[in-house]
Amino acid sequence: MFGNFDINYLIFGILPYAVLAVALIGTIARYERDPFTWKSSSSQLLRRKQLMWGSVLFHVGIIVLFFGHLIGLFTPIWVLDTLGISYGFKQWVAVILGGTAGLAAFVGASMLLHRRLFDPRIRLNSSYADIGILAILWLQIVIGMGTIILTLEHMDGGKMVLFMTWSQSVMTLQLNAWAEVVNVHWLYKAHIVLGMVIVALFPFTRLVHMLSIPIRYVTLRPGYQIVRSRRARPLEERRRAFDEVEARKGPSAKTTPAE
After folding, report:
1. Residue-level pLDDT at 104
2. Which CATH superfamily is domain 7-220 in?
3. Domains in the chain: boundaries
4. Which residues in the chain come in under a pLDDT of 70?
5. Can you give the pLDDT at residue 46?
6. Which of 44, 166, 175, 188 could tie 180 with a disulfide, CB 3.0–4.6 Å?
7. Of 37, 2, 13, 31, nearest to 181 (Cα)?
8. What is the 3-state secondary structure (H, E, C) of 175-213?
9. Which letter, b or e, does each residue of 215-240 get, where b requires 16 or more Cβ atoms within 10 Å of its Cβ?
């Protein structure tokens, strides 16, 4: 019955749909049931300097990588042909841009992971999910940088077209999409599998905060900020009480309030 079964069919043909279902349903359920956990849980107050450098490098790098993969994988091949963009040129753009962004993300993720693991206060205030998802992202970046080395051996864009075809076939519900990536290098396969793991874990970690775009803050916030001093109100109350006492004493009493 299972003599002709290929594990590649399960991983690259069936698993993507299970992952997408978990990500979609899990994200909606978390937003509906636990909206107050929908946050990045910043540890900035515990140690700011290393966080700022690591966070900026990581977020800039990972955002470029995310949209680079999104555009690179899901742009229809006929669009490239229509615009006259050669596959080799697109491959070089992906290598240069992805390599630069990947290096920035690697340095940033390493700083953030070191901070989580070796700062006692931050380690104490970090959950297993916080450390785990950061470690997985770090590993994914390392594997992604490794695939760049493999890509330099075939800059004609042939492998890129395979991954584009696989990604777009999955989204168009073509169950034979798995055949496109059967014979690629195991490092590419590991990159794809770990990417699916990250997508599946998305609703259950702090990664959900990437969906929270502060549009209301930009468009609806007032043009001023209200600042209330903790000391102002007690002073005002004491001065008011002092004035009431002075009023009872009459105009002859002359004293000054104690500050």
Report:
1. 96
2. Transmembrane di-heme cytochromes, Chain C (1.20.950.20)
3. 7-220, 229-259
4. 1-5, 38-51, 213-238, 242, 249-259
5. 46
6. 166
7. 13
8. HHHHHHHCCCCHHHHHHHHHHHHHHHHHHHCHHHHHHCC
9. eeeeeeeeeeeeeeeeeeeeeeeeee
